[in-house]
Amino acid sequence: MRKKYLSALLFGALLFASAGTFTSCKDYDDDIKNLQGQIDANADAIKALQDLVNNGDYVTAVKKSDDGKGIVFTFSKSGDQTVTLDIENGQEGDVLSIDPTTGELLKNGEPTGIKPATDPEEVKAPVKAENGVWVFLNDKGEYESTNIPVSGVTAVQNENKQWVLTITDANGAQSTVVVPSAASVMSDLVLAGWIDGTAIGDDGKLSTSAINTTFGGTTDNKESLPIEYCYITAITKDYDGDKETTWSAQKDVVKGQVLTSLRGLGVQLVTRVAPADLDLSSMKFTLQDSEGNALPITLNPSENFDGTLTRAANSSINLIPLDITTNTYANEKAYTDLYGANDGNTLYSLVEESGARSNYGLAVKATKATVTQQYVSEVDGDAPISGTAGVNANPTFEVDLNKANKLTFDTKPEYVYDYYVEPVDKAVADLFGVQIDKKAGTFTVTKLSDQITRTTFELYVYALHIDGKIYRDKITIKPSNKIVASATLAAGEQVIKQSVQSDGKTIDKANHMRFDISLDAMFNAMSDADKAKWTSATLGANEPFDITKVVIGGSEETGKEETAAPSDYYDIELLDADGKVISNDDEYYKAKTMRVYAKYRSQISTTTPLLEVGKEYELTINFKHENTEGDTEILNTVKMTYTPVLPALSDYMQKHPSFWNDDQTVLMGVDNSINEKFTASGLTLDYAIKDGFKKLGSDKVADDMDITFKLADNKVDNKEFVEFDESASTQTVKYTAPTAKDNKNYGKEFTVKVDDVTYLSAYKYSAEELAAQTFKMKVLSPIVEGNVEVKDGTAVEVFASRNAKLNIADLIGYNYNKQSYNLYMDVDADDDGKKAYEVSASHPTADDYADKAIDFVKFESGDEQVFKITENMMPVDSSEGTPATWNGTTKSVDAGYVTLDTSNVSQNTETTIKVTVTDIWGYEKTVEVPLLIKMAE
């Protein structure tokens, strides 16, 4: 692609230097000295610019700062960056450019008398800085020195469309930074075709099949761009005998111009660019054929298409609106000659002013228009409430107060180039406070007239058609009684729950959530008069209201509209100041609060959710009034927004503090009610997860929630050491205790994950929310984690003798939670072990331990040289001790004991007795308890 240098000097570059640039050869020493301090200060600014460039940013505009002492670079991503030239003594930088008509050098817009030559190849710049001085291109195509030193700061756009910032010091040394512009970073430009104003739907979508192209591509429509035109020989009043006049309204039109159908049809070029985020809005384009001939069409600033492109996903789509030129032509032929053959076969490409060119993707065909009068069909997008567009039809349109209204024309709107309105009777229009903006093409009604005297007024519509004729039409305007006060009732996040009555159990409205929201925001947006009107029994809300639209995920412009009828998903009630439902719509004017019922799941399939969790819903609601004639009209319109959310999962997984340590690890097998919580089958421990939580899920109708779990990968020596029963009724962890005393599994943490959560039968939680509820457990014995101690004192005591009895009641066992247990059998259990009885006359001998975690307890000598354990007068290695028995004489329970055979000690002897408690899973707790063998007194 051949790079071109634009005809305007430096593309309108800003040259900031001494005030005398291009004027005289005065001594510049003082100026340079003044600049030196500023140059040093700008070093950081240059580095900042370079950093932005290195980060991929580029410039969309360069201009002189408002105070004339700096250069403002506008970056696409980083905004304005200013390099300041703080010149003393009022010497400010100048803006130099070349007059595109005369070729003369302009200084701050004023002629200088210098006319640099132009390069036929458009490669060499007319003026540039070289070796510390300004040089200009002479007639020989060579650069000639001006002998004027370059000092200060310059910003020049080179032939590659890059901005070159140069700082020159007093010695002529230069430092530069090259800053890319949007045009210089553009690597690809594709002209995909053209569309008209009907191509983009109300949903913001543009189908590729709606793009017209001349050839190739994947679009369905392969058509050249038709242009209907009229050469303006005169501007005349059709309604006044074709008397000639002038035109100035939204647009200014003069004789000799050519008006076309392009603007009225909303024709736009569809382009694609790389990089995808490149801003084309500051670039200037023309349509040119292969020989460089440009079409007489104005290309307005490009706009990035931020809607949805169907059948493609590309954020690099830009739309360029087409319009007429402001040029005038000597005659019609002078205009049509610019179309060349004008046969619809000549191909044109999009050309940026730097020379960047797209593919040849457009053909045009210009034909002279046969214009017919067009009539107003819509006012601010609304059709007439009575009458239709046509000759002398005078249709009536209803408009809201304080809203600027624009007009739309029927059948062939492209034939209307411009229009404005005037009141037929200004005195009547003044009753309604009518304001007309001729340049914007709008009118605004600011108040209602005395409704008894006047309910409507008339407007003349003056429409300039593209053939130069001004047609006058008449329309009637009826100001609406509707209260226009923009208000949004923002309910915020609302937790989805089944609505229930005050008892918390009875369903209120099946499959619907419910929330209340105050109408205060609506009333606060109204004037006092409008609020008084709304709450008036005569003029206020007294008819059934309706929901006209539901938008999901944003506003009407950005969200998607709910396809189902709003009445299928929503019921709304109004409540009075006492919070009571207003059942009679004649009394809706008393409303203070809105109660919303939103259907959250399908009534037919209750497992099907209907709400998109986390997305904002916007409802448009019309309140209505029935007047004395029985006619119903919209009183006002409000928006109501809410965002349905699921309850926090953590609220439904509240751990029981008794069973969890600070590290959030539940201790399995430590609950005192072991017969209720655990079952021992051989050496297997079963633990129901729900027993570790105060609240786990919910079985209430309002917030029914089922939570299921699963185990993570929990291995020791590459083997799983826990199992999990995943059936919903049990959700039980199973642990089999190894028989080896030193097994590696005891106390080993394992991870339990939330597998799934079903809320109200229809909603699921995200994987991230489930993962956040992962917790750890570990197998611990309540016995092993406890202790055995002397009940009173520091040692248990016996007197030295044969068959000395050690009362086991002098010892006490404690589980992990400091709950005590006896170290001897203390209950009489049934054979099946389901019921145990305290020792009494009817149950005289114990045969089991009251603490169900204990399998047995044994006692051993800590020093067999001092004493031995005996049973039936014979020494043994260990003894379980005797059980508790009933003493019929004392009518009390005798605790169990252990028999000792002591040696002949000569003094009180301190030793130990080993107590080993074995739990039902085979784990052992062994403690050596201090024992004092005393001499007989």
From TrEMBL:
Keywords annotated in UniProt: Signal
Domain of life per record: Bacteria
Signal sequence residues? 1-19
Q: What is this protein called?
A: DUF4988 domain-containing protein
Q: What organism is recorded for this protein?
A: Phocaeicola salanitronis (strain DSM 18170 / JCM 13657 / CCUG 60908 / BL78)
